[in-house]
Amino acid sequence: MTTTAQTIMHPSTNINDSPLLELRNVTQVFSSGPIWNREHNYAVNDVSFSLTDKPALITAVAGESGSGKTTLGRIMLGFQRPTSGHVLFSGRDVTGMRGGERRQYRRQVQAIFQDPFSVYNPFYKVDHIFTVAISRFKLASSRDEARHLIEEAISGVGLRPSETLGRYPHQLSGGQRQRVMVARSLLLKPQVIIADEPVSMVDASLRATILETLRTLNHELGIAILYITHDLTTAYQVADNIMIMYRGHVVEAGDVEHVINDPKHPYTRLLVQSIPMPDPSRRWADMRGVNDPPFSGVEVAHGMCPFVNRCPDALATCVEDIPGTYALDEHRISKCFLYQDAGTVPNADIAAYFNIRAASPSNGDATGNM
Amino acid sequence: MAEPVLTIRDLRVYFNIRAGTVRAVDGVDLDIAEGEKLGLVGESGSGKTTTALAIMRMIKPPGEIAGGTISLDGRDLVELSEPEMRSVRGNDIAMVPQAAMNALNPVRRVRDQMLDGLRDHGVNESRNRMQDRLTTLMAQVGLNANVLDLFPHELSGGMKQRVTIAMAICHNPRLILADEPTSALDVVVQRQVMETLEDVRSEIGAAVILVGHDMGLMAQFADRIGVMYAGKLVELATVEQIFANPRHPYTRLLISSLPDTDGKKRLQGIPGLPPSLLAVPPGCPFMPRCPEAMDICGVQVPELIGDIDIVSCHLHTEARVA
């Protein structure tokens, strides 16, 4: 270890070693347009956040399209080098990683993507995605051992190896294909899984099964999971903590129970009110015409609250400055001037405010026997 | 029940492919009342979109309407000639497509595309009158008139979907078919688009068939819900009955697999896969996945029981009394 592997002390925990995967003041700017009139889009705006395995939790990142949630995931996967800030894996900056160290990072941080169709090469049988991983990371010394590992991983996600292996991707359903991707992650026994909208293209009846599999991986194998989604109901069911993103800012974060059932940031409130609840007696409240945003005509620029033009509670300060991050209580932060009396948190790791799951919720029979 | 706008009887849509005949829709009966909001739910491949396309007579080869009737105000659409059907589309029945970005022409301004839709159905008025019509349509869907001068890529997803709603209502249709109109939108925009659809629907008094798999959206929007499985309608009831008292085991499992925000629970999926529509097994198509299957289910197709509140399951031999 070199001296760069310094750790940030967490206010609420006493972890002396580094978190598994950490973002430090990460900003990602996408620039477009001609050089005399560049437009700068802050996809991720000064986010510090970490995933640990002590204990391994499921953290949701939610927000609308364009909120930066996918970019955040890509940065954590090392697909994208941030404009500024650092990504650290076990305390080491991933940008400087080479050779074996980089391979280790690649293995320990696995991805599950949204589209279970385009991740497969249609010319290869599904076995291919397993055999490539096994030879790349030298997981098995013989064919039999490889076969055994593959079958174990496939059974682990509730599929039958005999009905899955030897088939081409088009012979499997979307739900099966997505579970094969989860099985591939499982084969590598990673420390972190970054799942970007893993169920948004899967039928509702299969969503539950895939999400339950992710939950089992977390609870039983201690894999830390970042669950990126636009669906607050699945985030609520699966995750321990949640970060709500809006235009690159983490506008609210904390324990999922509190954030969803008692949202504080006006954007989170709007999101929660818009959830189509599967209950005809709880229909959307009619919000047309009420609470018109006072600054609806304002063109949002860098240097003001990103939500100001849609916010029904906007104040004059909101167009003059970016709100700080305020700690509402020990498990909740919000980036909104309404809560500035609570006091700014030093721009430290958001995960310090996460609630640590006391005991696994009723998953004693989580067998994944679907 | 009010006089039905559309009556579907024994609709069958088959796709004749090399491997055999895919029975995508196999004997569907459906009545849609004046101004009613009907939700049609089911997994991918259950036949819900095919049913909607059949109503528009937009089934493409190798698919064909193999039988049944679709009557709109007493006229059987299946029997109409193509020119007659062309005038029904848009004028009487309109469609709000799933992917608004693919439904709009990327190289033409919104104004020109909307004018096409009007002129194509014989509306040819003075420039000013047409302009007024477009401005009114835009206002109806909550868009500013200057959107007319923009290209589709300059619009957000929600705005594009509103433009397609404006196009759908421009001839005051009796029936609007909306096929997952908000599946690509995030929750806030989804709510706004659905509210827009509801506003214009009640304004012109049209009936809506909302096709989709999101039971949450159905609960928010629909008056009645029809549940499709393997090309058949297996349950049809009011939205309240479906959620409070589902009778078909498939409906029950579909509802219990939904995540909500009232306490964490173990998420329960529906085990197994729907049958291949090339060779639907004898008996009830849901039998292999049904937790309550009985011997008879593997032998005999359950009959549709009921009049308004319909179920097709051997567990139910008597119609529900209201």
Q: What would you call the structural class of chain B? A: alpha/beta
The chain-level mean pLDDT of chain B equals: 89
In whole angstroms, how far apart are the ends of chain B? 13 Å
CATH architecture heading of chain B: 3-Layer(aba) Sandwich
Number of domains of chain B: 1
Radius of gyration of chain B: 21 Å
Tell me the number of structural domains of chain A. Answer: 1
Topology pattern of chain A, helix = H, strand = E:
EEEHEEHEHHHHEHEHEEHHEE
What portion of the residues of chain B fall into strands of 2 or more residues?
15-25%
Structure description:
The complex is a heterodimer of chains A (370) and B (322). With 370 residues, chain A is α/β, with parallel strands linked by helices. Chain A has one domain: 3-Layer(aba) Sandwich (Rossmann fold). Chain A has ten helices and twelve strands. In chain A, the strands form two sheets. Chain A has an eight-stranded mixed β-sheet with strand order 6-7-8-3-9-10-12-11, sandwiched between helices. Chain A has a four-stranded antiparallel β-sheet with strand order 2-1-4-5, with helices on one face. In chain A, helix 7 links the parallel strand 7 and strand 8. The longest helix of chain A is centred in the middle third of the chain and has 18 residues. Chain B is globular. Chain B has one domain: P-loop containing nucleotide triphosphate hydrolases (Rossmann fold). In chain B, strand 9 and strand 10 form a beta hairpin. The interface between A and B is large, with 46 and 39 residues.
Strands, helices and their partners?
The complex is a heterodimer of chains A (370) and B (322).
Chain A: E1 21-32, E2 39-51, E3 58-62, H1 69-76, E4 84-89, E5 92-93, H2 99-108, E6 109-112, H3 127-136, H4 143-156, H5 161-164, H6 174-187, E7 192-196, H7 204-221, E8 224-229, H8 232-238, E9 241-246, E10 249-255, H9 256-261, H10 266-273, E11 326-329, E12 332-334
Parallel strand pairs in A: 3-8, 3-9, 6-7, 7-8
Antiparallel strand pairs in A: 1-2, 1-4, 4-5, 9-10, 10-12, 11-12
Chain B: E1 4-17, E2 20-33, E3 37-41, H1 48-55, E4 63-72, E5 75-76, H2 82-91, E6 93-96, H3 100-103, H4 110-120, H5 127-140, H6 157-169, E7 175-179, H7 187-204, E8 207-212, H8 215-221, E9 224-229, E10 232-238, H9 239-244, H10 249-256, E11 310-311
Parallel strand pairs in B: 3-8, 3-9, 6-7, 7-8
Antiparallel strand pairs in B: 1-2, 1-4, 4-5, 9-10, 10-11
